[in-house]
Amino acid sequence: MASDTSASHDETATGAHNRRGPFRSGDRVQLTDERRRMNTITLEEGGEFHTHRGVLVHDDLIGQPEGTVITNSVGVQYQALRPLLKDFVLSMPRGAAVVYPKDAGQIITMADIFPGARVIEAGVGSGALSISLLRAIGDTGHLRSFERREEFAEIAQGNVETMFGGPHPAWNLTLGDLAEQLGEYEAPGTVDRAVLDMLAPWECVSAVATALVPGGVVICYVATVTQLSRVAEALRADGRFTEPESFETMVRGWHVEGLAVRPDHRMVAHTGFLISARRLADGSGRLAPKRRASKTEFTEEDMNAWTPMALGERNVSDRKLRRAARDARKLADRAAYQGHDADPSGD
């Protein structure tokens, strides 16, 4: 006979309380009208959502079940749902470009991020990938994220706490360089998985190889073919990894209405490349496929091809970063208040 133990544990998992139940003050809610236009609001007692097509009173939604269809002051109808992870990631405050959901999903699967895993991450950005990693490893796992820029770390921390309703017990955010500081925090041969989302992941290959357990996985997210090539050669040159595998993911939606079935006119095409390899046992050599010799040295011109300016990356102003950090913290504080209010223990 099945027991109710799993259900009770489920309720205590970090972030579970704000993904279930009726709408509460502090909830993020996605409103979609009949024309499929979406707006995301944060519910507040006494709050109102104004558009040129009328007013929707927040109190009319608070206490209602998710999936409610509600009518505003002039008869416009909205369906109300909590944003899914993919919706939250694409609408949350950001200081850096986020890892798209299609790539985050591939990272979780291809790197085999499992419950309870010990994971290291370099390049937190706005926290999108950190959220996916924390969901995969659960409360019993361990994620240590390294971020060089303090402003990005603040934004990421706010977004993570918004998603989970407060700090996540499995997350440690370290301000600094993984290549230089990893050994201070993680002993050799103790890390299960390494995820690198940064401009120059090859700088971290040696440190990651030392930290990974035999059979552990490293996966890197890079934007250009030049970066992809250099990471692959760095993994091969290190000698402690299997032959790397590289790929990219493209997602094309379809319009389906009766017999009118066709691909959407727009699609999410190239966002980045993923390259992964596994840690070999000490003393074991890589089984390299036989191939014709090719150019592996990188010239100064090659190196300049992956600088932020060459990649088209815009400099984010300090003012925008401060605003994003404030917005992320405000949302996190609301989520934490909502979680405390929903806690049956009242602690």
Notes on the structure:
By secondary structure, the chain is of the alpha/beta class. It has 2 domains: 5-83, Vcp-like ATPase, Chain A, domain 2; 87-304, 3-Layer(aba) Sandwich (Rossmann fold). It is built from 10 helices and 15 strands. A 7-stranded mixed β-sheet has the order 9-8-7-10-11-15-12, with helices on both faces. It has a 4-stranded antiparallel β-sheet with strand order 2-1-6-5, with no helix packed on it. Strand 1 (28-33) and strand 2 form a beta hairpin. Helix 3 packs parallel to helix 4 and helix 5 runs parallel beside helix 10 (318-342). The longest helix is centred in the C-terminal third of the chain and has 25 residues, at 318-342. Keywords: Methyltransferase, S-adenosyl-L-methionine, Transferase, tRNA processing. Residues 90-257 form the tRNA (adenine(58)-N(1))-methyltransferase catalytic subunit TRM61 C-terminal domain. Residues 25-34 have a biased composition (Basic and acidic residues). Residues 1-34 are annotated as: Disordered.
